[in-house]
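ok trying this again, last paste got cut off
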Amino acid sequence: MFLTLSSSILPLIPQKYPGKLRIIFRQQIQPWHPSSTLAHEAAAAILRLAPEKFYAFSQKLFEHQKEFFDVNVVKEARNETYKRLAKLAGEIEGVNQDEVYGLLEIGDEPGEDGGLNVGNKVTDDLKFLVKVNRLTGVHVTPTVLFNGVVENSISSSFTGQQWEEWLENNIK
């Protein structure tokens, strides 16, 4: 869905629906795919460091998503996966790979309070995303909301043409 939206629909909005439509892309973590959490953390790091590069990073991540599927990361230490995600982010002009990794890296020392689940520098960002999605009734991906209400007629297989038809019928 993201690739269809970014290639077909996002460029259309300013021309066809100026001031009438705003798309908010909100991450939804799938806990049954543990490595997806790491990819979402990388996206949260981009939002912190270069929010204007979020769509470019998301595009690149979707193009390389299979490299981060469970079977491709299972034998890799978490920080190694973070390094690969940071390297991917660094391929985008204006994004510094080392800064991305600096937000993602998990240290090997207990926190100041002795805690061992210290997370990384985007852990709180991820917690916020999870809370927002719970409050809006988002439980699976993709989920589309229209005027704040879940729109179940839109599926992940929607083509650009189906999106255009749906928008034409619903944006007044």
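PB: full thing came through this time. The beta strands are 145-146, 149-150.
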